[in-house]
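Hi all, a correction to my earlier message: I attached the wrong file for Cytochrome c binding protein. Here's the right sequence:
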Amino acid sequence: MKKYLICILSVWLLTACSHPVNNPEKTEEWPEIYPDYIGVTIPATIAPMNFDYIGGKHDRIDVTVTGSKSGKIHVNARTASFPEDEWHKLLESNKGDSLLFTVSVKNENKWKQYRPFSMYVGDAPIDYGVVYRKVIPGYEVYSKMGICERNLSSFEERVLLENAMVPGMCLNCHAFNRTNPGHLSLHIRGQHGATLMQIEGNRELLNTKTDSTLSACVYPYWHPEGKYIAYSVNRTTQSFHTAKAERIEVMDMASDVLVYQPETHELLLSPLLQKKEAFETFPAFSADGKKLYFCSAVGKPMPEKYDEIRYSLCCIDFNPDNGTFGERIDTLINAEDLKKSVSFPRPSYDGKYIMLTLSDYGNFSIWHKEADLWLLNLQDGTMHAIEEANSNNTESYHSWSSNSRWFVFSSRRDDGLYTRLYLAYIGPDGHVCKPFMLPQEKPLEYYDRLIYSYNVPEFTNRPIQLEHRKIENEIVSSKRVKVKIHK
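and the right structure:
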C-alpha cells in the first residue's frame, strides 16, 4: 500500500508540474531564443539543442518537439532542456527529415504560442568530437588555458592538457591527420618549449629550431598519408592600435614554409618556400597529398607597412614518394587583385573545395572584425563568400569533418569580444545551411559566465589518449629530439 501511495503521489506531482497550455494567444512571430536555432541543420548524433527564451519576462516555457516521421518530446519548465536519451532517439528516427518545435511562453498566467519552427536532421554523420584551445583573451601575457575535447553527442568536456601543469607554459597549434587523433602535433611555448609529436601512441618532444630556420615549427598540417607534416616558421610580433576600433595587430616580420618527416627527424626545404623577399605561412596539403597550399605575401618594411601586407593563396607540387617539391609556385588567389588577404586555407578532404578566411590585410584574421569565410571551388576556380555562415563580426579559424559534410568555425558574432564555436552543414553541391552554436546544457548561463574564448577547433573521430603525468614529466625534462635539415 505504501509503494502504491508513493506511485500515486509521484504521478500527481508530475501532472501538477506539467502546466498544460490552455487557450494560448497565437502569433505568427518567431520566438526569441538563445542560441538562435531556428531553421538550422543538425547531425543526428548532436547533443540536445537546449535553448533559453530571451523575449522578455516569463514564468515558464512549454516546448513540443514533433518528428516529421515519428516521435515527440514535451518539456515545460523555465528553459527548454531535452532529456538526452529521448533526444537521440527522436533524431535517429527522423534522420534525413525534420523536427517541428512549438514554443509557448507563460507570463502572468497567460500563454502565448509562437510560430512553430523547424530543425533539419542531416543524414550525413559528424565526427565524435571537437578539440579546441580555451584561453582567456589577453595581450601582454597568457593566463590559464587548456586544450579541451568535447564529445559532440553529449555535454561532456575533457581537459586534455593545461598550462597549469607547468608554470609559464603556453599550449597552441594542435593538429590531427584528417580528424585522426592517432597523429598529433602540439606546439609548446615558454621556458620548456617543444613540439609534442605523438604517432599511434609513440611520443617524442622535438626541438624544431635549427640554424637554417627562422624559429621553431608552428601552424601544422598533416600529409594525408601521415608520413609528413607541413609547418611554417614565423618571426612574429604584435602591436596595439591607438586610434582604430581594433585592439591588436599580430604580424609576421618574416616567415617560411617547410615539411617535416617524422621517420627521419628531417626538415625538407625548398628554396621557393624560403624567400627572404616573401612571407610564407599557413601550409596545408591537398586532399591527394600532391600539392602544398600556403599563403604568401610580398615582404615590406614591418611594422611600418603592416596594413599593406596582403597574402595570396599559392601552391607548389609535392611528391610524397620521395619528399621533393615542384619547381614553380602557382597563385590561386591574387591578393592584390582582390584587395584582400588570405589566411587559414583548409582543403576539404573530398578534394572539392578550399575554405579560407579573407580580411583587409595581414594574416592573423582573428583580430579583424571584417574577416569572413570564403569557399574556393577547386573544380572550376570560382570562389564566393559563405554568406550563410558570415556575420558582421569576425569569422576566423575553421576545419572540416572527415566526410567534408560539416565544418566548425570560430566567430565573435555573439558579443563581439569572445570567440565561440559554430557548426554548419555543407551539401554535396556546396550549399551551406545556417550554422548553429555549439550546444550547452544551460546555454545562456554557460556562455554568459564563460570568460574563455574558443581557439583552433579541430574535429576528432574518436577520443584522444594522452598520458598526462608522463607528458608533464617529459615537458619539464631537458630531453628533446633535435631535428636536422635534409641534405
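Sorry for the mix-up. The chain is about 10% helix and 45% strand.
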